[in-house]
Amino acid sequence: MLTSLSIKNYALIEDVKVAFQQGLTTITGETGAGKSILLGALSLILGKRADSSSVKNPDKKCIVEAEFLVAQYKLQLLFKEQDLDYEDHTIIRRELLPSGKSRAFVNDTPVTLQQLQQLGDRLVDIHSQHETRSLLSEKNQLEVLDAVAGNDMVLKQYKEGLQEYRKLQKEVQDLVAEKETAAKELDYHTFLYNELQEASLSNIHQQEIEEEYEKLSNAETIQEALATVLNLFSEEQAGTLETAKEARAQLAKLKTFSSEYENFWQRLQSVIIELDDLEQEINTATETLEASPEQLLQLQSTLQNLYKLQQKHNVASVEELLEIQEELATKLDTTATLDDRIAMLQKSEISAKEHIEEVAQKLHEARKKVVPKIKKEIEQLLNKLGLPHAQIQFTLEEVPELREHGKDALELLFTANKGTGLGNLKKTASGGELSRIMLSIKAVLANHKNLPTLIFDEIDTGVSGEIAQQMANIMEAMSKHMQVFSITHLPQIAAKGDQQIKVYKENTGGTTTTELKTLTEEERIVEIAQIIGGNTLTESAMAHARQLRN
């Protein structure tokens, strides 16, 4: 329910604020007074794109603020999904800045226009004689059947089931595609894996093999060098070891004279021991170094194969090749289990489809059951609205495919004239007839569903007399269940309002502004009388106005 609207610096409006009541609010005023401006400002609150040319004073920002009582609409989940603070009294504010930019807020939290539109669709529904396209939508027509049938829970169950079914469908499709790709790559992956497996990579220590290969490749050079070293160690006259031993013997004569000489002797003794060990190890290395051609070829073959694999897989180590081997093994295992996984998912997919098929059937039966009731109620209302021979028909047919709202295809057929065949609503109904059908449908819905605030923008154009009175009665009946606004030129509808607001222009100091005023009872009588007889008030017009108010 819209409880208040504040507009500053918008079009011809300088600064107005108006409070609204539950029930029926009628909005009247002369043509051109600015009723469309009021709707334009409200449209900004509902997420319509802003036009900077609509700002009255371009040097100041335009602010439109509306307060809604939203408790009855059960919007907590929507607020949570939009990450907004929920308040029973929700305030929506839209600002148009001098820079041309606009900002929107819900309970002081900045929001996008998309968020605003999603929320606005749940709060206000605006209809005019020239804007009835929503009535032609199959989705909206199905919503009429579902509202009367009370299908909320079943429809929720269907949508959740459809979402799960489509998720399983996609998973199956993805796995089938993966299987097709895997099948194409299976031989190649198997070849790569076997190639790595045959290389026995876990037994290869690349650095050790490379060192051994270098040593054996240069065995002759190494043996010659080591022999020279041994010769230098053991040469009788000038060998390193022999010279060191001679020096040790000389120091042995001196070590009793001083601790310093004793230290010299001990250090040289350590060197001699180290040289002895080194000589023995070099001897051993010389004796064990054999340049076996077979061993050299084996090492060369191992390294060549290893380097080829590393180059092929663009890596530099055995560890990385082992990782690739493991990845290939995983792929091969996955490929081997794909059929089982696909079969399991397809079983779940079939089960999910069977479930939503059952739910879709429940929806169809419930919709089918209420069609006669809705048809009867709408035709009765159309009769009151001056279409006594109008016939309406909901043609409901089951279709094979699963749609967003079930498995039903719905066509709304209509004829306004006796003896004329039924035809598709969008082709057979005039603008005025569409307005009356839309009013009738909304009136039926009001008895079954919490509808948002409904605004009728001059849908009574071309209507008068008894039909106008019936239209007023229907709006009044609807307003018992919801908040209804009617922008009207008809005295019958204006008089039915629980509240009446006048839109008028005022000229002050050479400036024209649009103003809004909530009328008192006496002011309402005068306003309705002027709608009946023009600005010149007559006793008969005043009497007629009072009669309409009683």
Automatic annotation (TrEMBL):
Residues 155-185, 268-295 form a coiled coil. One of its GO terms (molecular function) is ATP binding. Keywords: ATP-binding, Coiled coil, DNA damage, DNA repair, Nucleotide-binding. InterPro entries: DNA_recomb/repair_RecN, P-loop_NTPase, RecF/RecN/SMC_N. GO terms for cellular component: bacterial nucleoid. It comes from the Bacteria. Residues 2-509 form the RecF/RecN/SMC N-terminal domain. The keyword ATP-binding applies. GO terms for biological process: DNA recombination; DNA repair; SOS response. Belongs to the RecN family. May be involved in recombinational repair of damaged DNA. This is DNA repair protein RecN.
